[in-house]
């Protein structure tokens, strides 16, 4: 009888440990999905993000859209850290960056 009780306790403990691990993993997956969705909304037009969410087959990536005006810019401001550290306050840094990217907008 004692052996059966110990075995059942061990099985129950193991099952509980597995359920807790699964619950934790599911939370991490949901958190990652939220972060991915947030990143997608920053990088892509809302229309494209919605189409990707609504198409589980993954074929949404094959669609194309016509945009009259679009800009994709990636930049690396060489020496930015040194330059930013020489400014007196964060507003000056933001204004400086805004001025630089405003020049790109004028192109």
Describe, in plain words, how this protein is organized in 3D.
The chain has 4 helices and no strands. With 107 residues, it is an all-alpha fold. The N and C termini lie far apart (84 Å).
Topology:
Blueprint: H1 2-43, H2 46-54, H3 80-85, H4 90-106
Q: How would you concisely characterize the structure shown here?
A:
With 107 residues, the protein is mostly helical.
Overall structural class, as computed from helix and strand content, comes to mainly alpha
> What about the largest sheet?
none
| Beta-strand segment tally | 0
Global outline: elongated
Share of residues in helices: 55-70%
For the residues shown, what is the average pLDDT? 82
Our Rg estimate from Cα atoms comes to: 26 Å
Order of helices and strands: HHHH
Low-confidence stretches: none
List the total number of helices.
Answer: 4
Key phrases:
single chain, 107 residues, mainly alpha
């Amino acid at each position: 009888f004692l052996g059966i009780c110990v075995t059942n306790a061990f099985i129950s403990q193991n099952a509980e440990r597995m359920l807790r691990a699964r619950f934790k993993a599911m939370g991490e997956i949901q958190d990652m999905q939220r972060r991915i969705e947030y990143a997608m909304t920053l990088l892509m037009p809302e229309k494209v993000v919605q189409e990707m969410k609504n198409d589980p087959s993954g074929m949404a990536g094959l669609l194309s859209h016509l945009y009259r005006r679009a800009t994709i810019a990636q930049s690396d401001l060489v020496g930015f850290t040194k330059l930013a550290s020489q400014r007196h306050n964060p507003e000056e840094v933001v204004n400086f960056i805004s001025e630089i990217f405003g020049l790109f907008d004028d192109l």
